[in-house]
Amino acid sequence: MSNFERREQLFSPFFITHNFNMINQSIKEDILYLSIPNQDFSYRIPVERLGNPIDWKVGQKGTEQIVIENVSKWTLQLFTKKVTEGKYVKEFVAIVQENSPNNTINWENTKTAVTLQNKYNWLVETNKTAKNKMTEEEIVESLKKKFNLD
Fold first, then answer.
1. Per the domain annotation, does 35 fall within a domain?
2. For residue range 54-69, what is the model confidence (pLDDT) as tens digits?
3. Does 128 reside within a domain?
4. Does 22 reside within a domain?
5. Domain extent at residue 68
């Protein structure tokens, strides 16, 4: 089973919120401080921006990209740079909902965007050493097909 397939399994219960307490959090002067013990994970996020949605683009600038609308910027920024267990993403979603209860983030789109971005990152990385290299356009097209996007 690939890392991506494991990650997809971890996201299946993405919307179930629990009190995990794996992410340490505190708020000081309207800044949310987040960290995960024994992980290279420490961030500061302005509380007022926590629930702001964005349109996330997957793919290289200057090429055709996949755009997922109305997603959580912070979920994507925090959980697409390297593989992170789904339990941390679920807890972060609960943190956003707790600290920004009136947010307009589309969590289904966010889930799709995180999964899509991580799959894209994996394809780009494995493409570097692949015998038969894919172009950027082929990578994006394969993701569109896999995720039924157009």
1. no
2. 999 999 999 999 999 9
3. yes
4. no
5. 3-17+52-146
Higher pLDDT among residues 88 and 128, named by residue: 128
- Domains in the chain: how many in total? 1
List own/partner pairs for 97-101 with CB under 8 A and 24 or more apart.
97/17, 99/27, 99/32, 99/47, 99/50, 99/51, 100/47, 100/50, 100/51
pTM above 0.90, yes or no: no
- pLDDT tens sequence across 77-122: 888 876 567 788 888 899 999 999 999 999 999 999 999 999 999 9
Q: ∠ CA 48-107-102 to the nearest 5 degrees?
A: 35
Residue 118 lies in a domain: yes
Scanning 84-106, the segments in alpha helix (DSSP H) are: 86-99
Query: Under a CB-based contact definition with an 8 Å cutoff, are residues 88 and 36 in contact?
Result: yes
